[in-house]
Amino acid sequence: MIKYAALFGLSLTVAACEYEAGEPLDRSVFGNATNSNAAVMAGERDFAIQLATRFAEEVPTTITFAFDSAQLDGNARAVLDQQAHWIRQFPEVRFRVFGHTDAVGSASYNKALGLRRARAAVNYLVGRGISRSRLQAVVSFGETQPLIPTSDRERRNRRTVTEVSGFLKRHPTVLDGKYAQIIYREYIESAVPRTSLTSERSIKTTLE
């Protein structure tokens, strides 16, 4: 009886852990639970989380818009310039832009408006030298995810957010599974010691 109880308890534990291990960062990013489990086993998911966190810490991820507009103002372009500079340093990484609106207007209109805003951000990044293939499917959440819960006009809700969505599967670095090298590339490069040796020619010149 104890043996069966132990096995039953183990099965419950496995079942509980299975959902946690299979839960992706975003179901639209890594697909279903099976794909996410494979990503976890390969280490990809952990490194994607690290890179997403780093992107959010090192550059502004959000731009805002005027009411009922998808036009980029000077502040928005300045933020996107910073994003483009960061993105260019990681050619193996893909990104996604999410469009949002405030709650003024119909849901269908706001969804379309959020999509236009996201596309405006994507087009600007492409104009700054980012391959469109690295900017994944543009998604609009319309008015459904406000930062400030209000039915009134609110600029902070009229925004796009740029996020890391994963890795380019066919990139040589990714094919080799060198995710750590991607995340810590500049640390790896800065770790190369500079020689303090003086060339023979320099020594001769000094002696002369």
From TrEMBL:
GO cellular component: cell outer membrane
Sorted UniProt keywords: Cell outer membrane, Membrane
Pfam families: OmpA (PF00691)
Cellular location(s): Cell outer membrane
Primary localization class, coarse: membrane
Source taxon at top rank: Bacteria
Start and end residues of each OmpA-like domain: 52-168
The protein, known as: Outer membrane protein OmpA-like protein
Organism this protein belongs to: Phaeobacter inhibens
Origin organism lineage: Bacteria, Pseudomonadati, Pseudomonadota, Alphaproteobacteria, Rhodobacterales
